[in-house]
Write a structure and sequence with these properties.
Elements (H helix, E strand, L loop, with lengths): L1 H21 L12 E3 L7 E6 L2 E4 L7 H4 L4 H4 L2 H8 L6 E5 L5 H6 L8 E6 L2 H13 L5 E5 L12 E7 L8 H11 E13 L12 E2 L1 H9 L3 E7 L5 E8 L2
Parallel strand pairs: 4-5, 4-7, 5-6, 7-8, 8-9
Antiparallel strand pairs: 1-2, 2-3, 8-11, 10-11
The chain binds S-adenosylmethionine (SAM).
Length: 246
């Protein structure tokens, strides 16, 4: 009897420990403080660090011509990204940090009447560029949505896919934004990042504008997003898929 009581105690304690270890995200994993600043830092960065990574400066509307450059088609091969997204047509897709809407306008023709693109950005100039282009192209399935630095302004469980192309490294409050993006996903929803490969010193982009797969997976773990797959067929960038941890 005494032995079976100890065994029961051992089994229950083990189960409780396993439950504590696997519950995600555990508050212990969230860095405290979330952000630190350093006076000495990369000149293209903000001096604000998150989980050991320096956050880049936000690209202003002056960058629109670079975002729309014709060579982007061969340098970044956006068609490979589009194929990887495997859109069925009826999804609500968020182009988060949409800029001039480069990817919004590539995705919109892939969607049917049941689907739409929500182009989200922080800057009014970016949003008005997207509005003008949607009007000129007579596209009614591209809607714009203004976010704040900490809030993507998306209702809970409302979207199927969130795409962030060359954006994540410049979010000033990545923990807050990604926590809310996770909440905005419908069950089975996905977040897809396209980020320049920091692992490769030959990628001709400023260091603070690149991320490693390892770093991104570490940062997503604390907001309860788990890696689903990584595609490495782009010349310069990773395509990284994440889904909600249950
Ligand atoms: C380098 S541009 C990339 C634009 C677009 N994704 C593309 O690939 O053409 C980054 C964009 O992210 C936006 N951005 C930065 N921080 C943001 C935030 N917290 N919320 C929404 N947009 C943000 C910027 O305003 C800018 O338009």
């Amino acid at each position: 009897m005494q032995v079976s009581k100890s065994l029961r105690f051992f089994l229950i304690s083990s189960l409780v420990l396993i439950w504590i270890w696997t519950a995600a995200p555990s508050p212990a994993q969230v860095p405290q403080p979330l952000y630190v600043t350093h006076a000495i830092h990369d000149p293209n960065g903000t001096g604000k660090f998150y989980m050991g990574r320096e956050i880049a400066q936000v690209m202003g509307p002056g960058g629109i011509s670079w975002l729309d450059r014709p060579e982007r088609k061969t340098e970044e091969m956006p068609n490979i990204v589009l194929d990887a997204l495997n859109l069925k047509g009826n999804e609500v897709v968020v182009d988060f940090g949409a800029g001039s809407g480069y990817f919004s306008f590539l995705m919109a023709p892939k969607l049917n009447k049941g689907g739409k693109v929500l182009a989200v950005d922080l800057q009014d100039e970016m949003l008005s560029t997207i509005r003008q282009r949607a009007r000129a192209l007579k596209l009614s399935n591209v809607e714009v949505n203004k976010s704040s630095e900490t809030d993507p302004n998306l209702p809970p469980q409302s979207v199927d896919l969130v795409l962030l192309v060359d954006v994540y490294h410049e979010l000033s409050f990545p923990y807050e934004v990604m926590t809310k993006i996770r909440q905005a996903l419908k069950p089975g929803g996905q977040v897809v990042f396209v980020e320049y490969r920091k692992e490769d010193p030959n990628v001709p982009i400023k260091e603070v504008h690149k991320t490693t797969v390892k770093q991104l997976q570490k940062e997503m773990a604390v907001v309860g997003l788990v890696p689903a797959k990584v595609i490495e067929t782009l010349p310069l960038q990773h395509i990284e898929f994440f889904r909600k941890s249950e």
